[in-house]
Design a protein that fits this description.
eight-stranded mixed sheet; Dihydrofolate Reductase, subunit A; alpha/beta; about 200 residues
Length: about 200
């Protein structure tokens, strides 16, 4: 399977708490819900297309807890049946049980466990949110594609998908479009280590 990272970002790179004020208040974050004003019908359709390519979902512990709390109750949502029915994996060394069926807990060497999942037949193993997990798997060279929905807002504080000191990575733009509300939707293939040069040299 191909490992795909899907993230909502602000213009200043914040990925924390995009969906609601109380979604993720860790570290005193009080500016949640910044993505919601820009989530228009065009993006909802795109999200449905992406989810339709998934054969499994992968989460970090915190994102999994939020999704497992909310999605089983969203039976009328157009993506609810797919989201609830897909096999799910959660990377955690603290969880001992997971109630959002079907879920498998990945503990121990998570990168090795994910590498094993990637060797299985299938289309996409998708990471939704879970920025810390995405960072670690990008650093491990396991991510194949990054999909970013970038909202035209500067949040000013909060956890970022690409923090200072993170692993470098080269990317190649595969597609890009803008919705009527100003979301910039970019899809990148991960190409390995980035290249560096000097401006003006032939």
């Amino acid at each position: 399977m191909k490992l795909v990272v899907q993230e909502f970002l602000s213009l200043d790179g914040v990925s924390q708490g995009p969906g609601a004020p109380d979604e993720d208040t860790s570290d005193g974050f009080t500016r949640g819900g910044w993505f919601v004003p820009y989530a228009d019908e065009a993006f909802e359709r795109q999200a449905g297309v992406w989810l339709g390519a998934a054969d499994a979902l992968l989460f970090g512990r915190r994102t999994y807890a939020n999704f497992a709390r909310d999605w089983p109750r969203m039976t009328d949502h157009p993506l609810g049946a797919v989201m609830n029915g897909l096999p799910k994996y959660v990377a955690s060394n603290s969880l001992t049980e997971a109630d959002w069926d079907p879920t498998t807990i990945l503990s121990g060497d998570v990168a090795a466990r994910v590498a094993e999942l990637k060797r299985r037949p299938g289309r996409e193993l998708q990471i939704h949110g879970s920025a810390r997990l995405a960072q670690s798997l990008l650093a491990a060279g396991l991510v194949d594609e990054v999909r970013l929905a970038i909202a035209p807002v500067v949040v000013g504080t909060g956890r970022r998908l690409f923090p200072d000191g993170g692993a470098p990575a080269g990317l190649r733009l595969v597609s890009g479009e803008t919705t009527a509300t100003g979301l910039a939707v970019h899809v990148y293939a991960v190409t390995g280590r980035p290249e560096f040069g000097t401006y003006g040299e032939a």
